[in-house]
Amino acid sequence: MSLRALPFEDEDEQRRLSVFHLVGLAAGGVIGSGWMLGAGQAFRKAGSDAWLAWLFGGLLMLLIAGVMVELGTAAPKTGGLIFLPLQSSGEVVATVVAAGLWLVYAINLASEAVAMTKALSGWRVQGLLDGSDTLTDRGWCYALVFMAVISAVNLVAPRIFFRINSWLTVLKVLVPVLTVVLLIAAGFDDRGGTAVAHGDGKGAAAALSAVVGSGVIYAYVGFQGPLDFAGNVKRRPPGEAARLRRAVFGTIVGSMVLYIALQAVFTQYHDARWSAADMGSSPYAHFAAATGLFWLGVLLRVNGVVSPMGAGLVFAHALTREVAALSRAHLTHRGLQTARKASLNRRHDVYWLVLVVDFFIAAVALRALGGSWSALVAATGVLTLVVYAVPGVALVSLREHLPGYSGRRRDAHEVLARASFALVALILYGAGWAFLWQGLAALAVGCVLLLWLPSLAQWLPAFGRIYDAKVHVTQFREWRTRPSAQAAVWLLGHLTVLMLLTLFLGDSPIGLHHKVLGGFLAVVTALVSFEGLVRASRRHIRQVPPMLPTPGAGPTVVAPTPIAVSE
């Protein structure tokens, strides 16, 4: 049968978002709990060099964003993080990306709820955290309540949601900016603690490890919010592309400056005599109290609940659109794809069923990772980098099918795509085995579920009546001749090799030269895997021409030729 653009597929793309709304999505996702809790984690790993972790993470995000924005503006599609890899590389690669993206957004719900619970403990609510700073059973119940609240707020009409989120983001940005200004103005003296000597830094290698393990990547995640809604951007001058670029790049650059400044404040005010329990959920509130700015401390403690909640709202809302794209491709239950089937009513246009599934996944992750904020954000960091690596493959593979740019511009973006893919591999390698295996194990579980549930539905008719999706796992049987399966083998093989390098060389006690060798091999294998992915994807495109939206031409998908969809 031929796959054509269907009317319900355009429903999500009728709403038009301004730069204010787009920045609300980007900054609202970025400014969450990471800036409050990440500085202490980074400091423990890298000492006074912790600011380098925020610099490395921000530069990596700028590089990745350059690739993702180029792809998102050339083919603007709501739900594009799943839709575009599907068009370039086929169903199995799209399933791997979807599993990672779904887990990132769902685990974010759990991690922000944990941050809100930790903030309550700063208000002297007893019994929420144990001695290791993880949730008790009572704290776990509080986190579940916060997750339910975030999901419930997403049930309001989208026009109200975007208005609430945008103004909430303004408040969330003002508080950390005010914190930096006032604490710097208060002076780096003995009132706030003892300054850390310059020689207490642990070097660039420790800072590189902190990028994933200390919540740095987690703190930057969310800039892609406007790209999740790329099909909804206003088209009048200055146009879709300009609005997306301003929102994404402006958010990354602004947050990078803010995070480095916050880390500098933390490093200068930190005193080794203060424990994590002394400082509570927000060290900056403790610093404010130490300098006599009690009102700022109160504001920061309130923001400790508000800021994570705002970020959770953005991720939960964006996930509904990405899962809808996944459902339309029949990679998961088809009943999740339309507002008519999965929302409260046409007026609200909310995918409540996705929110229910999201809540369940987040609860499982919360329990599996022991209610630890650090463990949740480390898993999120690994999964995020895997998801962010694939748009570069899609951009290079779809080169001939995207709107015509100059050859020089295309070549430049191809270089950026390869560089971002290699750097992602290097950052994952530097994160270490302890973080990498947990994130990739979660990805494996997600892939198995998405790939095998359709087969289970065929074997069990009763289950098939409630879960309706196409079987794609059988493509691996034809991996020698089927390009889409070959692309998936290249991607999964790359991740497997990266795990082995990290296990045997990354955490090797033998010596520094073994770790350097492992990093070199990680980059080399990443570049080889990238070329293999692109070649397999291009062969897939020749067999199944992509259906891509045209910038500024409305949400209708343009198909160069009819696409045969296997049943």
Quick rundown:
InterPro entries: AA/rel_permease1 (IPR002293), AA_Transporter_AGT (IPR052962). By secondary structure, the protein is an all-alpha fold. Helix content is 69%, strand content 1%.
Report on this model:
It comes from Streptomyces gilvifuscus. The chain crosses the membrane at residues 20-39, 51-71, 92-111, 139-157, 169-188, 203-223, 244-264, 284-302, 350-369, 375-396, 416-436, 442-463, 484-504, 516-534. With 567 residues, this protein is mainly alpha-helical. The protein has one domain (7-552): Amino acid/polyamine transporter I. Helices cover 69% and strands 1% of the residues. It has 22 helices and two strands. It has a two-stranded antiparallel ribbon with strand order 1-2. Helix 4 (80-89) packs antiparallel against helix 5 and helix 18 (407-431) crosses helix 21. The protein starts with 18 loop residues before the first helix and ends in a 9-residue tail after the last strand. The model is unreliable at 1-9, 190-199, 339-350 and 554-567 (pLDDT under 50).
Unreliable residue runs: 1-9, 190-199, 339-350, 554-567
Strand composition percent: under 5%
User: Structural class of the secondary structure composition?
Assistant: mainly alpha
What is the average of the pLDDT values? 83
Q: CA-to-CA gap between the ends?
A: 9 Å
How do the helices and strands follow one another from N- to C-terminus? HHHHHHHHHHHHHHHHHHHHHHEE
Instruction: Give me the CATH fold name.
Output: Amino acid/polyamine transporter I
User: Superfamily at the CATH H level?
Assistant: Amino acid/polyamine transporter I
| Share of helix, binned | 55-70%
The domain tally reads: 1
Cα-based radius of gyration, to the nearest Å: 23 Å
